[in-house]
């Protein structure tokens, strides 16, 4: 039976339809990219030496050896790119992990990745006397991946498989065990602690292109897998039983998304050290604009994560000039009050 309109006026399309929402989200994404561009320019301009616009252009195009300002700009380029890369990776990893576990407090630390990477670096320093960033990368990457595999294996035990609750409990237990192992090594090896503490703080200072190149493939593969898993994460958000009822493949979807999150977070931790709050706070901030749909949440988390990391790095250089505060400390200083503000505004809900 055809339903007739209640008035004689023709029906008008809703002002907030899918097309309008899509246009609004695209505009928001463009504004975020513009904010990231401004933060990147600030990252090139501010530091122990503040440079002019002409010196920024000269430093980017062809820095002259005799011009210290242009040399300073050139040295800040890899630092800025690393901050963008790490911030985007941690933002996406946090969004994917929260989607997998349906836990609003999930971040790279929940599945033991940060502590797995830390233990890998500690073992590398203690057993192989490594002391360079290019050496930390591989130990941290292997440690993070192994920790995630252990958490997933423990969380998969039992008839129900890897449920969100079991993964969270397995991650907490594994993190506690890894933390004890790290402390056990550091307590008896003060020489290891003296080297390890500089990596543990987390930072992008001293970034070099040659240190970033080995982990770029891991970032790219992780980002592609995260985007590919967006639809599966939307189905998982309905609950495992509903997802299976709708024909969703719960296990493979969770596995692909998990691989993406591990690659992104382990790579970011490997090159910049353990950085807190970015993976936790950024997805919640992105949901304020996008809602729960992961096809929008993932790119927004990448963009906001990059903005947060670059801005935190710039503030750390401006506040403590001519020295700088590591970005791992600044993200905690910025992220903690912002997260409390989000909670007070009831923006953090069950996923």
How many strands, which pairing sense, and closed or not: the largest β-sheet?
none
N- to C-terminal separation?
A: 39 Å
How do the SSEs run, as a string of H and E? HHHHHHHHHHHHHHH
Number of helical segments? 15
- The portion of residues forming beta strands comes to under 5%
Overall shape: it is globular
Could you give a short description of this structure?
The chain has 351 residues and is mostly helical. It contains 15 helices and no strands.
Task: Please explain how this structure is put together.
- By secondary structure, this protein is mainly alpha-helical.
- The protein has 15 helices and no strands.
- It has helices spanning 18-45, 53-61, 68-101, 113-128, 133-155, 164-188, 190-200, 209-212, 216-228, 230-236, 240-245, 250-272, 278-290, 294-319, 327-344.
Observed structural traits:
351 residues; 73% helix
Task: List the topology elements.
Blueprint: H1 18-45, H2 53-61, H3 68-101, H4 113-128, H5 133-155, H6 164-188, H7 190-200, H8 209-212, H9 216-228, H10 230-236, H11 240-245, H12 250-272, H13 278-290, H14 294-319, H15 327-344
């Amino acid at each position: 039976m055809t339903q007739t309109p209640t008035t004689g006026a023709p029906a008008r399309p809703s002002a907030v339809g899918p097309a309008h929402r899509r246009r609004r989200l695209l505009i928001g994404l463009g504004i975020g990219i513009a904010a990231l561009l401004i933060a990147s320019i600030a990252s090139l301009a501010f530091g122990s030496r503040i440079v002019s616009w002409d010196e920024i252009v000269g430093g980017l195009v062809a820095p002259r050896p005799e011009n210290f300002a242009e040399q300073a700009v050139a040295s800040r380029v890899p630092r800025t790119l690393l901050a963008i890369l790490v911030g985007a990776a941690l933002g996406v990893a946090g969004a994917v992990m929260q989607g997998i576990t349906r836990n609003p407090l999930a971040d790279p630390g929940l599945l033991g990745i940060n502590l797995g990477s830390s233990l890998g670096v500690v073992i590398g320093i203690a057993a192989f006397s490594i002391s360079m960033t290019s050496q930390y990368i591989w130990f941290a990457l292997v440690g993070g991946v192994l920790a995630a595999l252990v958490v997933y294996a423990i969380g998969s035990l039992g008839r129900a498989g890897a449920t969100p609750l079991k993964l969270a409990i397995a991650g907490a237990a594994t993190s506690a065990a890894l933390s004890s192992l790290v402390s056990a090594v550091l307590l008896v090896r003060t020489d290891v602690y003296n080297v390890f503490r500089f990596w543990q703080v987390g930072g992008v200072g001293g970034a070099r292109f040659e240190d970033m190149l080995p982990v770029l493939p891991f970032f790219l593969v992780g980002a592609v897998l995260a985007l590919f898993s967006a639809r599966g994460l939307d189905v998982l958000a309905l609950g495992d039983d509903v997802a299976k009822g709708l024909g969703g493949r719960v296990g493979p979807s969770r596995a692909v998304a998990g691989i993406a999150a591990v690659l992104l977070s382990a790579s970011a931790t490997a090159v910049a050290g353990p950085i807190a709050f970015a993976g936790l706070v950024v997805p919640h901030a992105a949901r304020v604009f996008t809602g729960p749909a992961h096809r929008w949440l993932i790119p927004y988390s990448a963009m906001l994560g990059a903005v947060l990391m670059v801005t935190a790095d710039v503030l750390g250089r401006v506040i403590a000039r001519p020295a700088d505060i590591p970005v791992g400390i600044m993200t905690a200083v910025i992220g903690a009050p912002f997260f409390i503000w989000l909670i007070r505004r009831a923006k953090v809900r069950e996923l």
